[in-house]
Structure formats: C-alpha cells, structure tokens
Amino acid sequence: MKTVFHSADSRGHADHGWLNSYHSFSFANYHNPERMHFGVLRVLNDDTVTEGKGFGTHPHQNMEIISIPLEGDLEHKDSMGNTTVIKEGDVQVMSAGTGIYHSEYNKNADKGVKFLQIWVLPNKQNVTPRYDQIATGDLKKENELYQIVSPNASDQGVWLHQDAWFYLGDFEAGKSAVHKVHQSNNGTYAFVLEGEVEIAGQKLGKRDGFGVWDTSELEVIAIKDSRILLMEVPMEIG
Asked: Where in this chain does the record put each Quercetin 2,3-dioxygenase C-terminal cupin domain (predicted)?
C-alpha cells in the first residue's frame, strides 16, 4: 500500500472577492509540481461563490467535470441549451469532449454557495459533449458508502468517460465501511467534508485529502460524526 496525505491547510488558495477557492491540486496561479494530480484526478477545488456572482461563459474541452454543491444553489447554463439549477444533494457531470461553453452562477440573493469542482481526465478524446445531473437523496444510506459516479450509464449515479467510481458516506462516530477497489491499477482519494476519520492509520480532519493505492481495499473509520467523499480513479494517465 502506498499513500499520500494532503492537509487542508496545505492546499492552494485564491480569494478573488466574489470567489474563495481552495485547490487540492495545481490550478490557475497555484502551481506545485508535487501536487499536479492523483492519477487521472486533475482538479479538486473547494469553492465558495458570493451572492449573485459566478463564473461567466467560458470553454472546456476533453475533460470530465463533476460538480457537487455542498450549500446553496448554483445556476448552470451551457452551449448545449441546458439551463438548470444544481443544489445541495445534487451531483452534476459534464463531458466537455470536442468542446463546450458554460457558466455557473450563485442563484442565492442572501448567502454564498459552496461546491466542489472536480476534473477527471477522460479515457476517450473528442467525445460528443453531454450533460447530466441527479438528486442523491434516494441514494443516501447512513453509515454506508453510496455510489454517485461510475463509468456505466446503467449504474447508480451519473456516469463519465473514465474507469472511475465516486462515493459519498455519512457516518456516525464509531461506524466504519470498507471500500473494495474495482480495478488493480486504480487508487482512491479520500476527501473529508465534515468530521474526522481514520484510513490506513492516518487520521483526517475536515477538508484533508488522502490518496491510497497499491491495495485492493481500504477501511474508513469515523472518529467523529463525519461526511466523506471517495474518488477511485486510474493511477496511469493515457
């Protein structure tokens, strides 16, 4: 088993006034040659957007983009004609493929919106752009990991062009769960949303990240009431 620990306070940080963003991996003006990616997991941004502000229309290409709102409502518009709102409990995926334009704005007039912006390198280039979103309320299971992203359109959650599986878990203190890795060349990156957990002997607090690979499974143990995101991704790029 191999591991890498990224403490919450070691992340890159950018405060643009309307946007307060923490970067687990190199992004924009934050460049760290030792934090370029975890396998095909290229971006993990922890963003807060102020009232009525947001990201104006901008392009993406050949990237799988997952957005997970943590608080508040985010309005999405794109060049495929989609206009929708994603909110806490939703998961959005966008395959940029041959090219797409989109914008994201805080729909709230009285509070900020907090969300995770995640980029995964695809296993297919120049696919037809696509968009999807789901509500995860019916998927949620207490004290268990529940799947929200996979490579298969017929599976639970949304799907993307990569051999990757994402899980959320809400755990009471003292509870635990085992994640069994789907493919031997995959690793798993854990990101703690709330609380405190232990994985492979490493204690993790709020917004700490922990990558584990060269193992067939890992156990998540909740030290306090906790919420965690697990992202299993291929470790080899290309």
From this structure: 147-233
State yes or no: 102 annotated in a binding site: yes
In the listed set 116, 135, 154, which residue is the last one of a domain according to the structure?
135
Helix, strand and coil percent figures for the chain, each rounded to 5: 0, 55, 40
Q: Does the annotation place 64 within a ligand binding site?
A: no
180-213 pLDDT tens trace: 999 999 999 999 999 999 999 999 999 999 999 9
- Residue range 110-166, pLDDT digits in tens: 889 999 999 999 999 999 999 999 999 889 999 999 999 999 999 999 999 999 999
pTM (2 d.p.): 0.97
Angle at 179 between CA 177 and CA 183, to 5 degrees: 175
Q: What is the DSSP letter of 8?
A: G
Please tell me whether residues 16 and 128 are part of one structural domain. Answer: yes
When divided into structural domains, the chain yields a total of 2
Full residue range of the structural domain in which residue 176 is found: 145-234
